[in-house]
Amino acid sequence: MKTKRTKPSTAGAPADHLKEVADLEANYGEPMIRTQIYLSRREHDFLQAEAKRRAEPMAAIIRSLIDHEMEVPADAWTNNPMLRPNPADPGWDSPPDAAINHDHYLHGASKAWVRQGDQWVAAPPEAETPAAPRP
Question: What is the per-residue pLDDT for 87?
Answer without folding.
Answer: 81
